[in-house]
UniProtKB/TrEMBL annotation, chain A:
Domain named Ig-like: residues: 10-60
Keywords: Cell membrane, Disulfide bond, Glycoprotein, GPI-anchor, Immunoglobulin domain, Lipoprotein, Membrane, Receptor, Repeat, Signal, Transmembrane, Transmembrane helix
Transmembrane segments: 311-333
GO BP terms, alphabetized: positive regulation of cell population proliferation
Main location: membrane
Keyword Transcription regulation set for record: no
Protein's UniProt name: Ciliary neurotrophic factor receptor subunit alpha
GO cellular component: ciliary neurotrophic factor receptor complex; CNTFR-CLCF1 complex; external side of plasma membrane
Any GO MF annotation of the entry: interleukin-11 receptor activity
SMART domains: FN3, IGc2
TrEMBL record, chain B:
Superkingdom of origin organism: Eukaryota
GO MF annotation, one: cytokine activity
Signal peptide per UniProt: 1-24
Subunit-level organization: Forms a heteromeric complex with cardiotrophin-like cytokine CRLF1/CLF-1; the CRLF1-CLCF1 complex is a ligand for the ciliary neurotrophic factor receptor/CNTFR. The CRLF1-CLCF1 heterodimer binds SORL1 (via N-terminal ectodomain); within this complex, the interaction is mediated predominantly by the CRLF1 moiety. The tripartite signaling complex formed by CRLF1, CLCF1 and CNTFR also binds SORL1.
Pfam (any one): PRF
Keyword Glycoprotein found: yes
GO biological process, one term: cell surface receptor signaling pathway via JAK-STAT
Gene3D superfamilies tied to this protein: 1.20.1250.10
Protein name: Cardiotrophin-like cytokine factor 1
Taxon lineage: Eukaryota, Metazoa, Chordata, Craniata, Vertebrata
Length: 335, 221
């Protein structure tokens, strides 16, 4: 029968060949490859100071008959270090979620157990399917004076570890960044940029729990940001942009009264409106317009010939029909 | 002895709390309920800010463990007499404007009461000064809420019902428990101020300034 064996990195491992006596003649293999006899102590396999690469399938065969006597899967790993736990409410007042991870891998399977205590009550944190290391809780009561205590325990075959977070309901409120940030130039205003955005979709009730916003912007060529804090509204017009320079703009959100600022939104780029350069001479203007008009009568090679919707003007129709006849003639030839 | 002073405390509280309901300010009707709500909201934010400094000083005065940031004691039954802001989520959502305002009015009236008694007991002059200032601002908040209620045509909630409790009934049996009471008082105050910001945000959206004029007309003014 098959076993799984977990051992710590750096440990000394002794594998017995099942119920065989110490002095029995056996052969050990690791992942199908024979193991040198020098590693054996009688019928025991000795692995000193094991490392991760020594993980694998170890099998023991009786000397002459080659009967498989024992098989084990060796998994070399480590006990868990203290996990990193984070709890946050991005959907206040609905609830909050906690997510966690291990600072260093253990290389063997781990089980995570999370407990949430609110005063004297035990609450259930429902595990999310995706992402895996996350669970969420719904608030039953709002405006609580009692703190929440979240304990995460991680266990594996080689040990366990845990961490605890204690916090007030309002301390973990942090919205997601604003969405759909759009920055546009304002026609005929070379120093303005119009920025607009939307509340993050995860924030369930902006009417009762309004958000305030923080806008930052700078021209790409400079390092220093300008900041504007906005207590309401989801748009703002920048009026001091440097003419003709490309800007980078970001917005962050925060509950009006509690919690912390969201991360910065995706950055948008925009350049303020600039006046079109004037034509140098009138002659140049004329040649430009005539060449433009003739080119429009030639069916571009990539588009379908005589697509009904694109035919405009009698001249174009004439060209179209001619082309159609030519194609028809060729196709008759090739049938 | 602590027993006597707490008896006085409960008596004072009952006496102060049985004062007739404060009359609404006439000027709030002219401003419109919408603006009064905004002002009340602003006041709660100001008080919250003030409380942070006051609580810091007071908790240091109480000493450890009360001034430790992760001090998280269990709630003892005796602390229940301080009005709690904690409320079921759906219940809070479904509160009528009247109920919402009344809950705030009642809570702050009682909290003010307890704070005033505290003021008479604290040791240092700096603390007394801070507490007095805070009480004055809190009084302003109670008046402001009363003003909003009157301008919307709601009756002001009556003072606490029933005769005052016999002296010594709520006395803390020892110094540590007395400090615990103070700790919870400050905590509830902090929670109420943070809740009120949300209460008044909700009211702001539901009661635009134009509504008041319509209401007054409907009542034949």
């Amino acid at each position: 029968d098959s076993h799984i064996q977990y051992e710590r990195v750096g440990a000394d491992v002794t594998m017995k060949c099942g119920s065989m006596d110490w002095d029995a003649a056996v052969t050990w293999t690791a992942n199908g490859t024979d193991i040198n006899e020098s590693r054996l102590n009688g019928s025991y396999l000795i692995l000193k100071n094991v490392n991760l690469s020594q993980s694998g399938q170890y099998s023991c065969y009786e000397g002459s008959s080659w009967h498989l006597k024992y098989q084990t899967s060796l998994r070399v790993g480590m006990p868990p270090k203290e996990p990193v736990l984070m709890c946050r409410s991005n959907n206040y007042p609905k609830g909050f979620y906690c997510s966690w991870h291990l600072p260093t891998p253990t290389y063997i399977p781990n089980t995570f157990n999370i407990s949430v205590i609110h005063g004297t009550k035990d609450m259930v944190c429902e595990k999310d399917v995706i992402p895996k290391n996350r669970c969420h809780i719904r608030y039953l009561q709002l405006f609580s004076t009692v703190k929440y205590k979240v304990t995460l325990t991680v266990t594996n075959a080689l040990g366990k570890n845990s961490t605890t977070l204690t916090f007030d309901e309002f301390a973990i409120v942090k919205p997601d960044p604003p969405e759909s940030v759009v920055a546009k130039p304002v026609p005929n205003n070379p120093r303005r940029l119009e920025v607009s955005w939307q509340n993050p979709s995860s924030w369930p009730d902006p009417e009762s729990f309004p958000l305030k916003f923080f806008l930052r912007y700078r021209p790409l060529i400079l390092d220093q940001w300008q900041h504007v804090e906005l207590s309401d509204g989801t748009s703002h017009t920048i009026t001091d942009a440097y003419a003709g320079k490309e800007y980078i703009i970001q917005v962050a959100a925060k509950d009006n009264d509690i919690g912390t600022w969201s991360d910065w939104s995706v950055a948008v780029h925009a350049t303020p409106w600039t006046e079109e350069p004037k034509h140098l001479t009138t002659e140049a203007q004329i040649t430009e317009t005539t060449s433009a008009s003739t080119s429009s009568f030639m069916a571009p090679p990539t588009t379908k010939i005589c697509d009904k919707g694109t035919v405009v003007g009698s001249g174009a129709v004439a060209v179209c029909w001619t082309a159609g006849l030519v194609v028809a003639a060729y196709s008759v030839l090739f049938i | 002895p602590t027993g006597d002073s707490w008896g006085i405390f409960t008596f004072l509280c009952a006496a102060l709390c049985n004062l007739p309901a404060l009359p609404a300010l006439n000027c709030s009707e002219e401003l419109g309920a919408g603006q009064s709500i905004q002002q009340t909201y602003d006041l709660t934010r100001y008080l919250e800010h003030q409380l942070r400094t006051l609580a810091g000083t007071y908790l240091n005065y109480l000493g450890p463990p009360f001034n430790e940031p992760d001090f998280n004691p269990p709630r003892l039954a005796r602390a229940e007499r301080v009005p709690s802001a904690t409320v079921d989520l759906d219940l809070w959502r479904g509160l009528t404007d009247n109920a919402r305002l009344a809950a705030n009015y009642r809570a702050y009236s009682r909290l003010l009461c307890y704070l005033r008694v505290l003021d008479g007991q604290v040791g240092t002059a700096e603390l007394r000064h801070r507490l007095a200032h805070f009480c004055a601002s809190l009084q302003g908040l109670v008046l402001s809420i009363g003003g909003v209620m009157s301008s919307l045509g709601y009756p002001l909630p009556a003072g606490p019902a029933g005769p005052p409790a016999p002296p010594g009934a709520h006395a803390a049996p020892n110094d540590f428990l007395k400090k615990m009471d103070d700790f919870w008082l400050l905590k509830e105050l902090q929670t109420w101020l943070w809740r009120s910001a949300k209460d008044f945000n909700r009211l702001k959206k539901k009661v635009p300034p134009a509504v008041v004029t319509l209401r007054l007309e409907a009542r034949g003014f």
